[in-house]
Amino acid sequence: MYNFFRNILFNLPAEKAHYFSMNCLKLVCNIPLVSKALKNKYTITDKTLQVTTLGLTFTNPVGLAAGFDKNARYLRELECLGFGFVEIGTVTPVAQDGNPKPRLFRLPKSQALINRMGFNNDGVTVVKERLIKWREANKNTQLIIGGNIGKNKVTPNEDAWKDYEICFKELHPYVDYFVVNVSSPNTPGLRELQEKESLGKILRHLQMINNGKAYAKPILLKIAPDLTQSQVDDVIDLAQEIQLDGLVVSNTTISRDNLDNSNETQQTAKETGGLSGLPVKEKNTALLQYIQSKTGGSIPVIGSGGIYTAADAIEKQKAGAKLVQVWTGFIYEGPGIARNICEGLVGRS
Hints:
Blueprint: H1 2-9, H2 14-29, H3 32-42, E1 51-53, E2 56-58, E3 62-64, H4 75-80, E4 85-91, E5 104-107, E6 112-115, H5 124-137, E7 144-149, H6 160-171, E8 177-181, H7 196-211, E9 219-223, H8 229-241, E10 246-249, H9 263-268, E11 274-277, H10 281-295, E12 301-304, H11 310-318, E13 323-326, H12 328-333, H13 337-345
Parallel strand pairs: 3-4, 3-13, 4-7, 7-8, 8-9, 9-10, 10-12, 12-13
Antiparallel strand pairs: 1-2, 5-6, 6-11
Helix pairs in contact: 5-6, 6-7, 10-11, 11-13
């Protein structure tokens, strides 16, 4: 059934199709009986799926990565589709339009996407207000919400820590964990913040604020799959030194390896931006395995990149991931992706 609708949606520009489909889902979920039916259809309730990590209990280990619901508009709908957690953002202090359109491109033969969105979002104040309303209306929810935070494009790197502080303080009461995003390839100069000194300044400052709160929230770092081994080692050393709560492995890649050789694919591959989907699967899994080996599994990791099926999720778990996130897989597999993965994971823990 989804293949039929996907063929229709793929006739629309990728970004337009995204918002069209999510707004349609939002519309039908306004009908309580439909919302309940969807939740019953797509949610797998099984105790063996529960994961306790980061000081939190997840009903299942399948989450939605940042970038899909940047502005916390679709939390109810995504909960109905059976996700154990949703990561909103990337959120910046001030609203920004992001990069010029078109900025999201499909590579169907490679089951991949290229995006150069550029942290388009409504700004932390608006997102916070949506979270407040959602929390008030869903006091008994079990959905875990992550807050992915970044800096505004116009903020110089030497002042980046201030942007992360603003977002951290504003969202702290309303999200369950944070992800510091310094690894998107679509904000000029952002990846320079992955260098040990710059990164340490941001993370230490956030930890100082966090430790002053009545309830500290887990802080994770999202890294790029394009780091050199020495850069990965620096991240690991810093994470262990400051007792970082976890890592998200990983963001999109600037590489164009493992793509289909068709003319259509190769033409689209010339677009700038980060590549996600099946072509990054092996690279991300190898990075996961390296981190697991280097740390002895002492740092909790969320695996992200090329997850479409339960077998893909199991591969990430074997490589050391406590949780997994989908994004591109959702586009190609459809609304049943969380359910299908969870069905394949039942009884494995």
